[in-house]
């Protein structure tokens, strides 16, 4: 079977020659799409690995990696403390403030030691109403360590309309329970 000749303004061409530019265009369009999908897939996987407070299921298994998680062993407390613990983990507070409020989550160029603040001492540093005010307002702007550097990527969203008053009270009770006990000789 012979190839048919196609007449174009440039002259005679065969069908294979006509398809070459279309194939090149398809490849040129597909490469950035594949590249972007790969890039964002790697980012998503690294974000899940980096942020265990948000990525481990309650059963203690990582959804992608299948590894066991080490969940905090909170001493059983009042129902308010347990409800506050559920709010803390359920709303992703652990993703930034760490397991049991221990902190140590990196926040590049943040004036707070380039980390998200720990929460284990907030029960002694703030009153209940001050903590609720902070939960309501969030921390939309984080001071920069280097004023000319980039803005710190992590900030606390306001929870004024996301949590009920009861949930906020329970969360404050949980945060208060995180305060480490005084060691003998530390008190006056």
In short:
With 188 residues, the chain is mainly α.
What does this structure look like?
The chain is built from 7 helices and 2 strands. It has 188 residues and is mainly alpha-helical. The protein folds into 2 domains: 7-50; 79-177, Cytochrome Bc1 Complex, Chain D, domain 2. Strands 1-2 form a two-stranded antiparallel ribbon. A hairpin with a 2-residue loop joins β1 (6-8) and β2 (11-13). It starts with 5 loop residues before the first strand and ends in an 11-residue tail after the last helix.
Rough outline: elongated
Distance between the termini: 102 Å
With strands numbered from the N-terminus, the spatial order across the biggest sheet is 1-2
Given helix and strand content, the structural type is mainly alpha
Main sheet attributes: strand count, strand direction, barrel closure: 2 strands, antiparallel
Oligomer: single chain
Number of domains: 2
Helix content: 40-55%
- At the first level of CATH, the class of the largest domain is Mainly Alpha
Content of β-strand? under 5%
Would you count the extended β strands for me?
A: 2
**Count of helical segments?**
7
Using only C-alpha atoms, the radius of gyration works out to 27 Å
| Low-pLDDT segments | 52-74
Provide the residue-averaged pLDDT.
77
- What's the SSE pattern? EEHHHHHHH
CATH topology of the largest domain: Cytochrome Bc1 Complex, Chain D, domain 2
In the CATH hierarchy, the architecture of the largest domain is Orthogonal Bundle
